[in-house]
Amino acid sequence: MTAVRPEASAQQASSTSFPPGFVWGAATAAYQVEGAAAEDGRTPSIWDTFSHTPGKVRNGDTGDIAADHYHRYRDDVALMKDLGLKAYRFSVSWSRVQPTGRGPAVERGLDFYRRLTDELLEAGITPVATLYHWDLPQELEDVGGWPHRDTAHRFAEYAEIMARALGDRVGVWTTLNEPWCSAFLGYGSGVHAPGRTDPAATLRAAHHLNLAHGQAVGALRSVLPSSAQLSLTLNLHQVRPLTDSAQDAEAARRIDAVGNRIFTGPVLDGAYPEDLLADTAHLVDWAELVHDGDLAEISRPIDVLGVNYYSPTVVSLATEGSGTTKNDGHGASEHSPWTGCDDVAFHLANDQLTAMNWAIDANGLHTLLTGLAASHPRLPLMVTENGAAFDDYASPEGRVEDPQRIAYLHGHLEAVHRAIADGADVRGYFLWSLLDNFEWSYGYSKRFGAVYVDYPTQRRIPKASAHWYAGVIRDNALPAGR
């Protein structure tokens, strides 16, 4: 393991200091880093099944080994400590601790997360646990998955199991990570597991994910101490119309409804937006789908909202004969994830692109954070994912230079700093990702990590951006210049 090389002090030359106690962290997800896919009682999740299905993942890659974090977590925590991380956001593999998605837990699975959190605490790093980052137990998908209401109840039971197992160690809990992706990419466009393409199932899944969140909050509150912080992480789309035309404004409204307000409405305001219900009434009977008491459960108060941001979403209404752009940055498919918005076209905000072909626009993060602060001024915010993939490689000398990532992070952290100055209550920032890892349907072809992983040897090499980030953390401030 290569030691982190802190940069020269930034505090002396910087005016962009962050508030005292600002949380600096990094994030990963279980299926992307753990490996050990069939060890200690773990059974397949929908991502195991999906990745082993020919043609679903680039190069036939799977998460069977991934970054081998399951076996190398002690070295990885030591690396986090060298980096100076104050918090580590990890997710729990549901099928590792509850293989069928129901019934008693497997202690061997729980023991891994006990060992991990103990290692983090000993290193002075706050563990932040995410209960669900897309890896539904395959047995639950086989009986209906997220479009099936019972899955929400199973999730609440799983949440209680985890709270009883780790509640004495973990004080910060996230129920779901990016439920939009689970519903709309998993059941709409099919580019994510389980790979279904049913618009009605997409909306049903979205509601049951909301319900799962609310029921899990109730379960967690019943077990955890009152000091525990509960959250939900959303990949809110910073939606912009391509032009100032009424048609493009309408396109933006519709995308905002199914991309953002389908979650923020019920979770934060206790109701689904009327325009969303009208837009999608031809696909699902909302009166049948939403039971009495659902909205009260979904809108249980949370302590902080997690915000994931990578790139803005620029849209227009497609003109007659022009067709629509099916590839909106989430992966190419003949089926749109944007349920009820088949005539909306997607555009790049500019030509400064990451390796994912996502436009680099830090202003979108500032706009997103200040907009949330204006609409929900008493709700603390946390940037729970932000980062970029570039075509990184290790030099013969064992160094990984990634100046583009440093520029990306500097720009986006400046945006966070400006948002705080403009009144947004942003409590922390988690870099995505700590490690290069299995990037879902892109396999191992995209590298988001601050730490380079040489997959054949599993050697970890902190990139130049990791050393840069270590300096930011140490000084609680950005360095002058880029």
From TrEMBL:
Keywords: Carbohydrate metabolism, Cellulose degradation, Glycosidase, Hydrolase, Polysaccharide degradation
Its EC number(s): 3.2.1.21
Gene3D superfamilies: Glycosidases
Residues bound to substrate: Q32, H133, N177, Y310, W432, E439, W440
Species assigned in the record: Streptomyces misionensis
One term under GO cellular component: cytosol
Protein's name according to its UniProt entry: Beta-glucosidase
Pfam families tied to this protein: Glyco_hydro_1
Domain of life, source organism: Bacteria
PROSITE patterns: GLYCOSYL_HYDROL_F1_2
Catalytic reaction equation(s): Hydrolysis of terminal, non-reducing beta-D-glucosyl residues with release of beta-D-glucose
Family: Belongs to the glycosyl hydrolase 1 family.
Active site location: E178, E385
